[in-house]
Design brief:
The protein has 206 residues and is of the alpha+beta class. The chain contains 5 helices and 8 strands. The two termini are 31 Å apart.
Length: 206
């Protein structure tokens, strides 16, 4: 049963015994966006077809934002695109993006722990979160005994929603963010990356 087979958050909760909360846990960590990025995104959004499919949303809107922030953390993390994340027959598939520790063996090794799961959906945020939450559960299980907060992002390119999984509790941030308010969106994504970095720095990994 692939991640995409789950259609509602409630179905995932029942299947894996996950509690659900809503609160504003996100803070903002200011990020300096280059003039080149602003100009390039403006051209793409004005002249391009950026949301005709989930692939288009990923390539034109989601990945550029994630990549821009990730570059500041690239010594510690790899941002994987459409890489398989398999735990068992119920938790398997290809998340849009995964933020994972950079392996001591080099950048070509897909190595745990996993910190962020990202899903693109064309205005189906319920289905997007059902899929993202199952991916977060798989990442949590694959991280084994490591007590890590797993973060999730679901976006249709314009609107961005954030959540986190701590043990058996999933919390969705009440406030959503939009690419129209680019500075605020970047500060939130940067905050998530910083939380991952803090967790990684506190881990003892063989």
């Amino acid at each position: 049963m692939a991640y995409s087979n789950y259609k509602t958050i409630g179905a995932v909760q029942k299947e894996f015994q996950i509690t659900y909360n809503e609160t504003n846990f996100i803070a903002e960590a200011p990020f300096n966006i280059s003039d080149y990025f602003r100009s390039d995104l403006e051209i793409v959004m004005r002249e391009g077809v950026v949301d005709s499919s989930e692939f288009a949303i990923c390539e034109n809107l989601i990945y550029p934002v994630l990549k821009e922030v990730w570059k500041c953390y690239s010594s510690k993390f790899i941002l994987w695109s459409h890489h398989s994340l398999d735990y068992d027959e119920k938790l398997c598939g290809y998340p849009e993006y995964i933020l994972a520790r950079r392996s001591p063996l080099g950048k070509l090794v897909f190595d745990k722990p996993y910190f962020i799961l990202v899903e693109a959906k064309q205005d189906d945020f319920e289905g997007g979160w059902a899929q993202c939450l199952t991916e977060m559960i798989a990442a949590q299980k694959l991280n084994y005994e490591l007590k890590i907060t797993i973060f999730g992002i679901v976006s249709n390119g314009d609107r961005w929603q954030f959540g986190k999984l701590e043990e058996q509790c999933f919390t969705k941030n009440i406030t959503l963010y939009t690419i129209q308010e680019l500075d605020k969106l970047f500060s939130v994504v940067n905050y998530i990356f910083k939380q991952c970095e803090l967790q990684l720095n506190n881990l003892v990994i063989a």
